[in-house]
Amino acid sequence: MPLPIVLLSGKLSQEVYEEIGRDILRIKNDTSVSQCNLVMQSHGGDIVSALNFVDWAKTLGIKFSAKIYEAQSAAAYVAFSLADEIELKSSAETGFHLGEIPLGVNDILPNGQIPQPMRENVSKYTNAMTNLMRKLGIDTDQFLMAELCGSGWLRLSAKECLERGLVQRLF
Predict the structure, then answer these.
(1) What residue numbers bound the domain in which 39 lies?
(2) How much is the pLDDT for 33?
(3) Residue 25 has what pLDDT?
(4) Fewest 10 Å CB contacts: which of 36, 60, 129, 154?
């Protein structure tokens, strides 16, 4: 039997994650399958929602695989955090991003501080990305970590992902 597929596409927002979550729960409840294939074509989205989605999905007892056409920023975080096996489009570039949280003038407190919840979200995402880089073995490569920390982005070609063992197959 083919694995059930859940599509993550476009800009990933809280609403999109909620819809994906309903799909995953429906699959889990309606079938005896304990595996799910995430099909990704996304340039990213809301990092806080991505963190919450990954934390939630890890509690389900489902084994995830991923077929990636595009995964940038939060989308890359979701795919590489959840999937045990990853297939990547041969012309794709995967982009890991340290993330951004929009800060408006009204977000700054009268004392010049950024609100505690916003600081906590940045810290949580930084810790999550650090753990992901460790899981993927990227943290031991000084050049890659300098690129990620210096520019806020680490972009890897499909070939680089395969050579580094981050993905199992190209298509």
Answers:
(1) 5-170
(2) 77
(3) 93
(4) 60
